[in-house]
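Figure caption, in words: inputs first, then the predicted bound structure.
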Amino acid sequence: MSPGSAEAAGLTENASAAEPLSPPIPTGPEEILAGALAALGATLRHYRAMGLSELPFDGAWLQGPAEVLVAQERELRDCRRCRLCDGRTTVVFGSGNPQADLVVIGEGPGADEDAQGLPFVGRAGQLLTKMLESVQLSRDEVYITNAVKCRPPGNRNPEADELAACAPFLAAQLGVIQPRVVLALGSVASQALLRTKEPIGKLRGRVHAYGSAVLIPTFHPAFLLRNPGQDYKRMAWEDLKLARREYDQRRRG
Ligand code: URA
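Bound structure (uracil present):
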């Protein structure tokens, strides 16, 4: 047996029992591609052996993040899982980059958002745009959504059962986007996402672990509009810079 042969590497059926069938560790891009193709071939042979003769190329398994988000939004269009459905005009799903490394999460749509079907398009939304721009982030670069997708009547805070009813849909959305950084706006979103009752004043200013991402709580822009003092603005600015630092460190590619 020549030292460089497949048999010598333990890859043929003739390899003796004493030689374990351990595949070589791929090092270069060609070897990695060859390994991936071999695995794909094995998977296809497996399905052919099970009697499958056609592949569903229109199936969800081949969809990219943008298509999956569109499908999720469509699924929610007639949602009646909580009482918020009674007063809403539109389910406000989210907007922005389906592969964003940073996702902004507010509490729930207001009147403008309910009318337009888009998150953060009213006064608070205009301030949010400026807050993002202050750390050189555009709305198109990030993804913006809310903890609940339907407007609470009279702009009250969403209640615990309403947040719980919407939580699986937010989780599914985040599962598709897979952000590295989550910026949570205000106490309602921050407490719901972190499952805590700690006030926003205590939660903000630090980086919280959030699955494979990190979560940075900050003041809600609507709160900043109601409380125009320099102190809150300065703290929000610190939080945004913190989010930007985490974003730069953790970004893909
Ligand atoms: N406030 C929120 O929390 N979300 C919006 O989309 C608008 C205002």
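The radius of gyration is 24 Å.
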